[in-house]
Amino acid sequence: MPTIRRIDHLAVVVSDLEASLAFWRDALGIPLAEVRQVPAEAAEVAFLPVADSEIELVRPTTEESGLAKYLVKRGPGMHHICLEVDDLAGMLQQLKAKGIRLINEEPRVATDGKKYAFIHPESTHGVLVELYELARP
Amino acid sequence: MPTIRRIDHLAVVVSDLEASLAFWRDALGIPLAEVRQVPAEAAEVAFLPVADSEIELVRPTTEESGLAKYLVKRGPGMHHICLEVDDLAGMLQQLKAKGIRLINEEPRVATDGKKYAFIHPESTHGVLVELYELARP
């Protein structure tokens, strides 16, 4: 049976990355691991590890993406949570069998090989949930 | 220097606890540890542990609380994230020195002895952040 392992990350949508880092890094003291350009998502992402999870600050780099439109509509704040699952394809089957609406019906594969899928917030009562399956040794 | 240790929990505000459990517990398979009545917060809370963190589903039990008004205004969804810190009083001093606006200027103490404080979302760019200091042996 597919099992949720842990919270992989919380994604926060931001309009000004330096202003957000002034809170998360400079005031709270969470170390900044990396800022990465992610052209595939039209975003710049800052990764701040917290124990076995991460906080990700995501800044849209165009005005066209879904994320950019979300930012305009709702303002900066929580965007989604990502849970690690040991068997993503199996979990998506299980969710479909329970009548859960999925944004991605099948696992998608990121450029780094990570498998992921989003669940539709309609079925989660307002929370955008991403699932990751990580390659582990 | 006060240090953030981990994500303690994510709090999701819900209008129908059973409907939300149908997703988090029944579809995702996250075990439900407990449903607790919290009269001090006028809420019913379901606790679902995920590794070293928790997802908390919070249902307002009156129409008067801040949480109930938030639910009416924004609908169900993410409400706040809670980070564990090793020294809450020290962290609040550090945040004030950095010009961060706090909802609780001093640590508050819950009925179970846990110290907590909320940071104002104005200073976090839209994320309501709670800090916990836990009594540890």
Describe this structure in words.
The structure is a homodimer of 137-residue chains. The first copy, chain A, is an alpha+beta fold. Chain A has one domain: 2,3-Dihydroxybiphenyl 1,2-Dioxygenase, domain 1, CATH 3.10.180.10. The first copy, chain A, is 25% helix and 38% strand. Chain A contains four helices and eight strands. Chain A has helices at residues 17-27, 66-74, 88-97, 121-124; strands spanning 4-13, 34-38, 43-50, 53-60, 77-85, 108-109, 115-119, 129-133. An eight-stranded mixed sheet of chain A has the order 2-3-4-1-5-8-7-6. In chain A, a hairpin with a 5-residue loop joins β6 (108-109) and β7. The longest helix of chain A is centred in the N-terminal third of the chain and has 11 residues, at 17-27. The two termini of chain A are 20 Å apart. The model of chain A has no long low-confidence stretch (mean pLDDT 96).
